[in-house]
Amino acid sequence: MINNINDKTILNNGVKMPWLGFGVYLIEDGAAVNNAVRKALETGYRSIDTAAVYKNEIGVGKAINESGIAREDIFLTTKVWNDNLRKKRVSEAFEESLKKLNTDYVDLYLIHWPVNNFYLDAWNEMEKIYKSGRAKAIGVSNFMIPHLQNILNVCEVKPAVNQIEFHPLLVQPELLKFCKEQHIQLEAWSPLIQGQVTEINAISELAKKYGKSAAQIVLRWNLQHGVVTIPKSSKPDRIVENSELFDFELSNLDMELLNSLNEGKRIGPDPYNFDF
């Protein structure tokens, strides 16, 4: 059982990653993201997830540097965007992210999307970055089983993490099983279905049963699946609420009930068919 906000999973290269992190997608750079990240760190989060395309790496880096928390105690993730895969400038993009984040290294660097004809070359560059020691771990985001198999067929360094859309309406059990078998840590983005968790009756009923919010029920479900989760909010009370997951546990029956909500429904793009 995952008992507190400081509990970590051990990635396939031995690096420790917090089970619960804080996402900053769509939080505007400057004061908004600075305040959100600082609140998250004050609350006890020690994992921050950003990306080049979020355009808030500068604010994230500033918040971390001003937090008074040692850099080595914070797990920092960023991602390389698709246009830099196509332009074959993964290493240059990495340098740009480091500069914006004002750090010497990141804990996890991800390929953001599996851009056809480019992600295998990009993985070769990711391995070079990893071997330089300036990314403690490397991984992918939005990769399905065929994409992962293509990398596993040629890689020297196996992806440590696959960050995907994962929530009760999109469980993807085959992908979850595959990643566990391959010792690739699954990580959930948009775990709260962009706020739709409050509109699903079964989740609301469980919230009443456990005396928790709908968001807390779903985030706990994520963790009990062995999936790292990174809820995002810019509201201080929600940032705190989303961290209060460690004083209860969902029963096996209630886990199955949430699993049964699976519709294969995406709120984000299809990793097999996107045009950006």
Automatic annotation (TrEMBL):
<dbReference type="Pfam" id="PF00248">
    <property type="entry name" value="Aldo_ket_red"/>
</dbReference>
<dbReference type="InterPro" id="IPR020471">
    <property type="entry name" value="AKR"/>
</dbReference>
<dbReference type="InterPro" id="IPR023210">
    <property type="entry name" value="NADP_OxRdtase_dom"/>
</dbReference>
<protein>
    <submittedName>
        <fullName>Aldo/keto reductase</fullName>
    </submittedName>
</protein>
<dbReference type="InterPro" id="IPR036812">
    <property type="entry name" value="NAD(P)_OxRdtase_dom_sf"/>
</dbReference>
<dbReference type="InterPro" id="IPR018170">
    <property type="entry name" value="Aldo/ket_reductase_CS"/>
</dbReference>
<keyword id="KW-0521">NADP</keyword>
<feature type="domain" description="NADP-dependent oxidoreductase">
    <location>
        <begin position="31"/>
        <end position="263"/>
    </location>
</feature>
<keyword id="KW-0560">Oxidoreductase</keyword>
<comment type="similarity">
    <text>Belongs to the aldo/keto reductase family.</text>
</comment>
